[in-house]
Amino acid sequence: MGLDIVQFLENKTILVTGATGFLAKIFVEKILRIQPNVKKIFLLIRATDKQSAAHRLHQELIEKKLFAVLKQRWAPNLSSILKKLHAIPGDVSSENLGVNDSNLRSEMWREIDVIIHSAATVTFDDRYDTALAINTYGAKHVAEFATRCVNIKMLLHVSTAYVRGKNSEVIPEKAFSMGETISGWKKLDINEEKFLSEELIGELRKRNASEEEITIALRNLGLHRARLHGWPNTYTLTKAMGEMMMRHHLNSNVSLAVVRPTFITSTCKEPFAGWFEGFPFRTLDSVAINYGRGKINSFIGDPDTILDVIPADMVVNAMIVAMAVHANRPAYRIYHVGSSMSNPLRYADFQNSVLNYFTDNPLADEDGIPVKVGKLILVDSMESFQKHLTQYYTLRSKEQNGFQSLHADLKRNIDNAMRAAEICRPYAFFKGIFDDTNTKSLRATAVENGVDLESAFRFNPRYINWEDYFQRIHLPGISGAFKLKRARL
């Protein structure tokens, strides 16, 4: 029997958490574009009331350029299609997802067929209490909500491949057991982690600490607890605990698919190439833009490190295929959606791509003068990076400003660059390769059931030409986003 994904989506009701996030927007747009007869899409949006949620829906989804293709394709029926979107004020960090209207909750529990949980704080060093509330306890609340949905076909949880932490081997698509750690130092007690953050807040408030001091202390606590248990940062620790919570609190009769993307980049094809959202930039994109601006001429990293990146529309296609395959089939499966196994990208290749692109397409500095770039220097330690930065900024400051305000500018620029490098450091030297056996099996199952993976639901990274993708799609996309943001400032 074949699997018709478009037909599967007809008359279905879907709940999407984190609805204003980068990945969720692409998911919602594609669902509406390929199946305008979906019954309803509930979009959980952080807002105080329905009016505020509806406003965010229009401002942050419908009015985005991302939806232009959808609007053109279904122009005569657009208003009826957009009515399928229902903005729900709520918050995954609260019980019942913060849906306070009991009648609405009952309607959702009665009608929902599929839940896509993509809500997350993706700041690597966020406050520990915030990251726990959203990434960890948010997953628990979604699982409990799903258990109340009487007609649910499946739950798809968006995690990250980097929950597996440090590894220099092939990293399997393996689940966590409750309390498992990377370091193996001590069993992880999630409730204790929450208690530690609450205890710290209480102590600081007794001492009349400022909100800034509390934020700094909670950021440091998250990083300390992550590294103690073997994770590189607060984000990956709290997402790993979220996977544990999701599995533990979900009814075993509900099919669960966990999609673990690697670093998500701009769309390569759908709804058009190069759509990107997310400013200020993080990780590689931050490196690329600051290099193009002449803010840095070096960065940490090993030229032979594999940078595992994957275009956003491929992640969404994998999500949709997994959703259809898992519906009504009670199972628990993890899918790595990345490129390091099938089509590895070396740091040196990225290094060459940014050099070639910004040589041919220079960004302008604050005075409108095109910035000339040299090859990005890769250094092997934070100490070497700081030395390069100090030399670079000292020279630039003398050239531009003489000695006036040299020390203040120098310190600010170096501090910002060092913080970015510290965040990127675990990935700049990462030696793991993500096994994608389950994801390959998912593609094989889809093909066997007649799904068009070549054009309609493409998510095989093997066919990406990285040089072409960076030169023609991704770097133009993030450069355009940077120029637009700067023009608005």
Automatic annotation (TrEMBL):
Alphabetical list of Pfam families matching this protein: NAD_binding_4, Sterile
First-level EC class: oxidoreductase
Keyword NADP: yes
CDD domains: FAR-N_SDR_e (cd05236)
Gene Ontology annotations of biological process type: lipid metabolic process
Fatty acyl-CoA reductase C-terminal domain ranges (all copies): 409-478
Keywords: Lipid biosynthesis, Lipid metabolism, NADP, Oxidoreductase
Domain Thioester reductase (TE): 16-319
Gene3D superfamilies documented for this protein: NAD(P)-binding Rossmann-like Domain (3.40.50.720)
GO molecular function, a single term: alcohol-forming long-chain fatty acyl-CoA reductase activity
UniProt catalytic activity: a long-chain fatty acyl-CoA + 2 NADPH + 2 H(+) = a long-chain primary fatty alcohol + 2 NADP(+) + CoA
E.C. designation(s): 1.2.1.84
InterPro entries xrefs: FAR (IPR026055), FAR_C (IPR033640), FAR_NAD-bd (IPR013120), NAD(P)-bd_dom_sf (IPR036291)
Family note: Belongs to the fatty acyl-CoA reductase family.
Protein function: Catalyzes the reduction of fatty acyl-CoA to fatty alcohols.
Protein name per its UniProtKB record: Fatty acyl-CoA reductase
Naturally occurring in which organism (per UniProt): Eucalyptus globulus
